[in-house]
């Protein structure tokens, strides 16, 4: 069983809720990674929704409190079942405290993946063999189990921030895959959309960059192989920025996109 | 009272729900405009949430069935009240049938609007006096009350689609303001983010373009005057496209942004 399958394992109950276990293996700092929580939630919705709507086409989440290692409850509610899509809500909680609440559109991604009439072209990424492994956590981070779950290979042009020289452009590019070789599926793409360091670091921010709201769209089933992720931010006001993520698969196909509003601590 | 205030008037009840009335005046085709429903919902959340969190910083909605003229119930639930933000959920329904469900982050937009560290620059728009009024509905549309609520002035470079010559670029630019002179506030920006014709028309799509999911962020309180709206789409697969909207105020400040996943009928 892959690490991701293990981390997103669910036990169904007769009342429609599911039990899961969150682990430090997917934490960074004090919190279990939000992307992992989203994939866990989407997997429960997939189980609860109609069989012909297995994929999260859209996933919109708010994060109410950080996930901690330990037991969790995932409660999906299907609001509407249509012909090509179903709509659902899902809550992830621990000890009665909400961690995540999301609105989800389920469907069959492959039914809407062709033809490609227009597509955000994949930008130039440094070849994977020239990229820099991001598995060494800064000493300030006590917990960084998350970094061991991926091969995260940063484009050398976008790692200046890790050496104290943020470019100020607000862009990051990296190749990513699960460290144990597990291939990404549409549910896992939600984790990959939130797996890179915050793009705010490229603008000089430091410390925790909590996500206020996250909305991701899965646009295609990814081909096997590493995924190319680009993060960009365009508008930064006060302590708030939007972070746009795009993922291309090994064929150069755009497979997922997202935007999150995040809060960062910028230098004066 | 402005038309917008009239359309978003709410009566509070002791059980925490609100009554409202949806009108044909804000319909296009058979449905009351989704943006108007979102503003209505945000207004109820604003009333229910803490006084110092009056604005929708983020608004993420799914649309379950089209709004129709007549009575509506708006039911907000505050999930969490923090120091700088509150999180809420809100449902708009008619006769027990859900029209819209949304997750909302409330805060004080003006508290996070300075400094502007980075900002999507306003692109070149044709001067408002050279733009083309879009208040004439195509004859095929029986209902188009919505078009009378705005002065919607389309940039001549992005109206080819209305004359049967879509550019294929997937971009629209227009100036917009309420027809009765009412100035936009943060809640009204949600309506303006969804008030233009669908950008899919610029790719040759025709007919109804339903919104599957919409997430908007309000980034600043708009200055008085007309607003400049740009719509763009980048990835169109099968019948699905994302539509990105950006709104700049009369000072050139980016005041709102959104992305929606929509379904369109494209020519073969």
UniProtKB/TrEMBL annotation, chains A, B:
InterPro entries: ACOT8-like_C, Acyl-CoA_hotdog, HotDog_dom_sf, Sec_Metab_Biosynth-Assoc, TesB_ACOT8-like_N. Gene3D superfamilies: Acyl-CoA thioesterase, double hotdog domain. This is Acyl-CoA thioesterase. Residues 23-107 form the Acyl-CoA thioesterase-like N-terminal HotDog domain. Residues 132-262 form the Acyl-CoA thioesterase-like C-terminal domain. It comes from the Bacteria. Pfam families: 4HBT_3 (PF13622), 4HBT_3C (PF20789).
């Amino acid at each position: 069983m892959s690490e991701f399958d293990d981390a997103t394992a669910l036990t169904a109950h007769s009342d429609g809720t599911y039990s899961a276990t969150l682990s430090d293996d997917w934490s960074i700092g004090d919190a279990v990674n939000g992307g992992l929580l989203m994939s866990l939630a989407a997997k429960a919705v997939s189980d609860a929704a109609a069989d012909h709507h297995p994929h999260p086409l859209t996933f919109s989440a708010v994060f109410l409190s950080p996930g901690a290692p330990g037991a969790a409850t995932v409660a999906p509610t299907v609001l509407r079942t249509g012909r090509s899509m179903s709509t659902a809500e899902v809550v992830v909680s621990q000890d009665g405290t909400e961690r995540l609440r999301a609105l989800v559109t389920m469907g069959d991604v492959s039914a809407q993946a062709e033809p490609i009439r227009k597509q955000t072209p994949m930008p130039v990424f440094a070849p994977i063999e020239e990229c820099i492994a991001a598995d060494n956590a800064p000493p300030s981070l006590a917990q960084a189990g998350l970094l061991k779950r991926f091969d995260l290979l940063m484009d050398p042009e976008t790692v200046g921030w890790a050496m104290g020289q943020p470019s100020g452009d607000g862009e990051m590019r990296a190749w990513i895959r699960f460290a144990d070789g597990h291939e990404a599926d549409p549910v896992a793409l939600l984790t990959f959309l939130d797996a890179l360091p915050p793009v705010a670091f490229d603008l000089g921010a430091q410390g925790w960059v909590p996500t206020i709201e996250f909305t991701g769209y899965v646009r295609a089933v990814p081909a096997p192989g590493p995924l190319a992720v680009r993060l960009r931010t365009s508008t930064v006001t006060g302590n708030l920025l939007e972070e746009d993520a795009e993922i291309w698969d090994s064929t150069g196909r755009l497979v997922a996109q997202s935007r999150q509003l995040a809060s960062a601590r910028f230098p004066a």
